[in-house]
Design goal:
three-stranded mixed β-sheet; globular; ABC transporter permease; transmembrane helix; transmembrane; cell membrane
Length: 420
Amino acid sequence: MPAPVVVLAKTVITSWKAPVAFLVFTLAMFALAIFGARPGDTTFRLSSPADAIQLPEVVVPSAPTVWVVAILLAVVTIVSAAMVRAQRRVPLWLIVIFAVLFMFGFLTWAATGSSLPMIGLLFGSLSLAVPLIYGSLAGVIGERVGVVNIAIESQLLAGAFTAAVVASVTGNLWLGVIAAMVAGVLVAMVLAVFAIRYLVDQVIVGVVLNVLVVGLTSFFYSQVLVPNAAVLNAPPRFERLPIPLLGDIPIIGPVLFKQTIIVYIMYVAVAAVYVGLFHTKWGLRLRAVGEHPQAADTVGIKVNKTRFWNVALAGAIAGLGGTFFTIGTGIAFNKEMTAGAGYIALAAVIFGQWDPIKATLAALLFGFASNLQNTLSVIGSPVPSEFMLMLPYVVTIFAVAGLVGKVRPPAASGKPYVKS
């Protein structure tokens, strides 16, 4: 008789978080349609005067558009609930569709009677997301190798401070970039030494480092930079480098391909980290150390050494991201100018499920939310200014708590390894 065939059932972990979050935003859109209806049209400007190809403006009636969007959101919510009920995960593409629909409806309502410059909105969103993307890449590498990098904020701030001072003194932007990366590495090495060598709680070390760097940079800013601002805190900036042909593509050209070298390096960094993590021997070893360090040790991988140098690499990436605050934009260093970007980057890591591409998309979402408050304030939106100021953080909370669902971080993340 033939041997019986055993079929193993695949367990799919589902969560009602996404449908519930969808329901909240859908009800909010219906509330705008019913109680906050605004007569008039909304104009979306898809080109700026400097663009090589001019696109026509898109004019939509506000009230009917909000109703249509609310109905479509309700449909997506029902679909997501049906998928969870059928023990299926809500896919990322459905979340993206919901987010795009909601944002289109909200912008249509908020900009009624005004003209919304979409190129400026998207360009500013990418600019604000740049340090978040660098920080999220540092967080992904750190957690994938088993170290929770709470110190992203301090690495960004140290990079911004060092880049401003070195570039101001030397007049050389690239020396400022190198110095910022070194500063990020030094902060990361402190985290690595205490977390890996001395087995101190990684979260506590990260928080202490954040407070320490904020204190040090604030002290040096007040006592050294302010009295000598012309010499020590007047950094040059990287100029924009439009890429021929690509920069002339409508909408995405001016946003993606008329940027500074820091942004172009970011594109390369995202691709390099993704390919490195999932398609190279380095990435395989890194992920093995973060998932099962004891098994990695048995096949000859030096666990703590791998963790130490990859945390240092993450610090270099975060330090490079810190340059965007100063020499990336030509702004003088100021106290606490990162304004919690490291913590939002850490949220992007969680929202992006420890994947560099998804974390980048999450960082872009947070950058869009941050820039949206500026754009709506300029066009005179009826949204209260207090709500606009808290919008980026509200989006962060809903994204992480409401849309992530049940995800599993790297198994050994935050756990020190002691060789037995």
